[in-house]
Amino acid sequence: VQLQASGGGLVQSGGSLRLSCVASLSHFRFDTFGWYRQAPGKQRELVASISASRHEDYLDSVKGRFTISRDNTKKTVTLQMNSLKPEDTAVYYCNLDPVDRLKWGQGTLVTVSS
To answer: Is residue 56 a contact partner of residue 38, using CB atoms and an 8 Å limit?
Structure first.
């Protein structure tokens, strides 16, 4: 089962976007999930993660701007992105943390214009 991210788009610097990921996994409530991104010419990086106990971790560059959350009933993981910057431009993916290579979806493109 691939995890499909949605909600990307084009936004001006300082704007906001909300990304969603539906993960129809039977063990959803026990898993740690992460939002990852890959900018052109760069390696994929972990942006934020949330554990089964709802502990959150963030990449330093997004702390205070991004918030990850989860809904165990709807089996969704959300990334609220505020105060977006051009350097946030990337394709965003959701996956488990650590990743399951079989669960990479197509991602959703976030473009932040200056």
So the answer is: no
| Span 13-36, pLDDT tens digits | 999 999 999 998 999 999 999 999
Largest CA distance in the chain: 41
How far is residue 41's CA from residue 53's CA, in Å, rounded to a whole number? 34
Cβ of 19: how many Cβ atoms within 10 Å?
25
**φ, ψ (nearest 5 deg) of residue 91:** -90, 130
Report helix, strand and coil shares of the chain as percent, to nearest 5: 10, 50, 40
What's the rounded Cα separation, in Å, for the pair 78 and 68? 6
The 10s digit of each residue's pLDDT in 32-59 is 999 999 999 999 999 999 999 999 999 9
Name the burial class of residue 102, with classes exposed (0-12), middle (13-18) and buried (19+) by CB atoms within 10 angstroms of its CB: exposed
**For the chain, how many residues are written?**
114
Residues paired with 38 in a beta bridge: 91
Report which of 96, 92, 70 is spatially closest to residue 81, judged by C-alpha positions.
92
